[in-house]
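Hi everyone,

Forwarding the result from last night's run.
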Amino acid sequence: MAALDIGNALKLHNNADLIYRYNLSDETPDPVDEKDIRNSLGKNVGFKVIKVGESAALVTCNPETKEITVAFSPCNKGGSAKFWGADHPLGGEVYKGIYDALLVENQTGFFVDHVKGAVNEYSRQMGGGATLDLSGFSKGGSLAVGAAGQWIAERFPEESGIKIRDIVTFGAPPFGDKEFCEQFDKNAQRLGINNWRITGVKNDPVPTLLTDEGPWYAKPFGMGLYDHAGQQLDSDHVDGHSMKEYREALVILFLKAAEIADSRPEPSEGSGPQKNWPELSASTKPHSSGPQI
């Protein structure tokens, strides 16, 4: 798995924050509407808000770079109590309460298919060959992993020619059991998908809920039910379960990376190009904690 692109992670955080504040406007101190989203993204970036029931996603398109992003919102009304498993087409079982939010349906189809349709349409408008990044905060991050798993099982990347590049989640609870996570990681490696989950488990217990590492009160029957796919990047600078805390952790990482880059000696002749950021590479051990920030 490639090193984390911090600049891209900050952009994905911004998109995840926008859809969170849009979808849960009555629960956030600083809600946004579509005009605010337009002002934040800039005039050259197209966007659509896909909303079915309580589920929502912000799909963006940059024609200049042929980049598409999807940010999923958490949906806090209902579902969390459905902690039992549901079969997933990729293999294994997943958290039913979160999976249901992907499969919520209106008269024309499932939420996850509406999002896929918007991605497909943007790619078609750009002549194909687009890249796709996914993100989300809290349960929105779990939805990002779940949507990617659904599309991988449907062979969407191969059939559409759209390259899923990065998945970056913030404080996300687990989505699937060990079998699902193993299948997800295997397919992510095959397709070249980077799956980073940013956590702050010292002060944010949400990523450990229903896992072996979680608090006793979040383990039904005294055991962990689910696991995490991807590579964890844990931060001591997260002080609670909020988008603001995760942004501050990324900014600290950004500044550290810039400081390290500035302190590097000038490349000698013939030494090749220098990296802009320090390596934050995936461990070879699945589901390992990885580097700290």
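The chain is about 35% helix and 20% strand.

Cheers,
N.
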